[in-house]
Amino acid sequence: MEYTVQKLGLMAGISTRTLRYYDEIGILKPARINSSGYRIYGQAEVDKLQQILFYRELGVSLENIKDIVNDPSFDCLKALGEHREKLIEKRKQLDLLIANVDKSIASLERKISMTDPEKFEGFKQKIIDDNEKKYGKEIRAKYGDEQVDRSNKKFKSMTAAQYTEVEKLGADVLETLKAAMATGDPAGELAQKVADMHRRWLCFYWDHYTKEAHAGVARMYVDDERFAAYYDRMQPGAAVFLRDAILIYTGMDSQE
Amino acid sequence: MEYTVQKLGLMAGISTRTLRYYDEIGILKPARINSSGYRIYGQAEVDKLQQILFYRELGVSLENIKDIVNDPSFDCLKALGEHREKLIEKRKQLDLLIANVDKSIASLERKISMTDPEKFEGFKQKIIDDNEKKYGKEIRAKYGDEQVDRSNKKFKSMTAAQYTEVEKLGADVLETLKAAMATGDPAGELAQKVADMHRRWLCFYWDHYTKEAHAGVARMYVDDERFAAYYDRMQPGAAVFLRDAILIYTGMDSQE
DNA sequence: ATACACCTTTACGCAACGTAAATGTCAATG
DNA sequence: CATTGACATTTACGTTGCGTAAAGGTGTAT
Question: By the 8 A CB rule, do A167 and A205 touch?
């Protein structure tokens, strides 16, 4: 039995375009081309197409299907196993994404009270006041009144969405820091990523980033026991590790 | 504070290409363009970018992000909720896919014994023999010896992979049939899909498909109580429902 | 002859950029 | 002052798996 594109497509439940595409990428070539240039498929091609569609339904890429069906000695089981791994990984990512969306929704719902301008302003003011009480003297001594006031002003001008974002970023920094500490290498990829995230986090408060200031903050995290306590609370040595990572990140580790 | 593409990209952790792209699609336009044609971003753009990246990390499409960030009165909560629904749906699909891959792997592992040529040949021969015993007389009377022999020959020439596939397709037909019966409409979309799947299933056995033959098989499913029992076992009335769906599918429902 | 259903190739479109290539600008250096 | 190197610009192809024209040839029936 011989088939043209349409007949085969009708039989397999796919479009003629798909068949032409499969021919184009070399995954299913017709048995022959007739005198008018028509693609003619035979039984062997029907069977091969069924194999192709089988793997396609499992979400295998055509690229991989090509290898599977063109090489009869190909280890399908291994290919499917690897494919499964990829799908599992994908699902893990998706779960994470969903969890994050849930968190964000919850955070936004809490933020509804923040959307109330007065409340949110008061909320931010309280955070600034608390911060001033806790660290005010140190940071004003270190950075000067002007810097600190500018930072506070920037914080006060934050929208609710930005506040949500900075909160999340702060949490992410801690989380990634923990993972980075497990590697034990402040110069490693993960630790440098933490430093980078920390820089971005700072940028929410600073209107002007410099490596020097970043390194200065890092040193303060260790020198000031209240900052140290904040980070070490998560894991002992976290403040030191973060400082070292940031010093390397900023390139300020050699000129101590 | 003003930023060029690179400065802003560095700060936000994205590429300059991305920033140009965001400008191109109108989701983040620079505050102004300087005399040399450089894009210059201000604080407002930094903040907006942070919003954009926030939603991007949650997997929201740029198209949707555009609506969210450009319209301050936009209901973010609703958007995120809908996004969540889409993700959940995606995960459901993925779970299904993984389950199918698992099934296929299990089936392939069983097939390892089938890959043993002798065993598989014997296996297929047994199925043919069983089939001949059960339905041989009826189908030979209905379709003639030649047809039946050709069908058997095609079955015998099946590879293990094809056998796995036809088994799966057969199971899928039953499953979808069940769902279609719940709708109660043999002319409905789902029932017609069942008829289509059934046609594809037949094509594994037939080397020549005709609507007439398809309709004939459908009628036989009801007339022969052993076939009827096979389908009705799943749900009473399944054979009749399948027949009606196929008759409509083949367009043979009016010329009875 | 012509209508109509089929076939062909070529090619744009989708999403979110990566990755050149070709060219212009800015600041610093020999 | 010319050159260098790090920036900037635009244009455009590539990615995946086809859908969807457009422009034209083929096959068969009326």
Answer: no
Residue A254 beta carbon within 7 A of nucleic strand D? no
DSSP string over A60-118 = --HHHHHHHHH-TT--HHHHHHHHHHHHHHHHHHHHHHHHHHHHHHHHHHHHHHHHSHH
Q: Over the stretch A158-193, which tens digit does the pLDDT of each residue have?
A: 776 677 678 778 888 888 998 898 898 888 888 988
- Provide the H-helix boundaries in chain A: 5-12, 16-24, 43-57, 62-70, 76-115, 117-156, 160-183, 189-202, 211-223, 225-232, 238-250
Eight-state DSSP code of residue A34: -
Please enumerate in sequence order all residues whose Cβ is within 8 A of that of A33, keeping only pairs 6 or more positions apart, or say none.
A39, A40
The tokens of B222 are what?
A: 């009801």
What three-state secondary structure class fits A43? helix
Residue B204: φ, ψ to 5°: -70, -25
Better-predicted residue by pLDDT, A126 or B239:
B239
Q: Is the CB of A32 under 7 A from strand C?
A: no
Q: Which residue of B has its CA nearest to A165?
A: B54
ipTM: 0.64
- Report CB contact under 8 Å: A104, B58: yes
Say whether domain A5-73 belongs to CATH 2.40.30.60: no
CATH topology of domain B158-250: Globin-like (1.10.490)
Instruction: Tell me how far apart the alpha carbons of residues A209 and B237 are, in angstroms, rounded to a whole number.
Output: 74
CA angle centred on B2, ends A255 and B8, rounded to 5°: 70
pLDDT digits (tens, 9 = 90+) for B85-130: 999 999 999 999 999 999 889 888 887 666 666 656 766 776 777 6
Flag whether residue A13 sits within 8 Å of chain B, measured between CB atoms: yes
Scanning the structure block, which residue is given the tokens 């698992």? B102
Are B87 and A97 within 8 A, CB to CB?
yes
Report the distance separating Cα B238 and Cα B226, nearest Å.
Answer: 13
Nearest CA distance, A55 vs chain B (angstrom): 9
Its sign, for the CA torsion B146, B148, B149, B155, is positive
Q: B40: which 2 tokens?
A: 């210059």
Window 120-159 of A, Cβ < 8 Å to B: 159
Q: Is the CB of B62 under 7 A from strand C?
A: yes
Check: CB of residue A165 under 8 Å from CB of residue B51: yes
